[in-house]
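Dear colleagues,

As part of the handover before I leave the project, I'm documenting each prediction I ran so the next person doesn't have to rerun anything. This entry is a single chain, and its sequence is reproduced below.
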Amino acid sequence: MYKLILITGASRGIGAATALLAASQGYNVIINYKSQKDKAIQLKKQILENGGKAWAIQADVSCPDQVIHMFNEIDSLGILTALVNNAGVVDLQSSFVDVSPDRLQRIFNTNVIGAMLCAQQAIRRMSTRHGGNGGSIINVSSSSVITGSPNVYVDYASSKGALDVFTKGLAKEVAQEGIRVNAVRPGFISTEIHADTGNTDRFNNADKIIPLGRCGSSEEIAEAILWLLSEKASYCVGSFLNLTGGL
């Protein structure tokens, strides 16, 4: 069965792990990146060397014109069957009262509107109502929607909360059009994005905070994403997998 997957923000962390796992399971992989071209090209090379097919496409998902251009380019590569909305941004640890309007706009433009723009384009290609063959969309949310992340990044948590509402509503809207929409909520995962918060010591006490006694890995999140994309999850619609080590 032909499978073509787009993973946004795939040059590092969860996105990169998902790309590698998807390729190993027979997907042709589109690696979207915003600025880390070298990492995206290296990931593409790794997939090709392992016998898979991959392309790296630059696009800032918060920019509508760039999203449209990316999907037009994808049309020349094949029929899209899966989308993983993984691209996301965070900022320095802060109390909400000190968060600037520019920061709010940047976080919501990428984490929420970017995912919506990509989902919209994917639906126009996947939906049976639009002549497509169906497909699956996975949104990468966060366990911060449960805690609210006070004094860390309430704005980021709020953006992921909006993404969850979008996941639930969209899932119900397109289920009868052959598209399954679900989400994963990673907890404390060891990825590079946490350096963007400015708190490199955040996970030092993970063994005391997390019931399982450790942080999670990008590969563990990738496994959950690929399960949700698979036929094994064929009755899973509008659902959320909490991957938090027990938090």
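The chain has eight helices and seven strands. The CA atoms of residues 81 and 104 lie 32 Å apart.

All the best with the project,
I.
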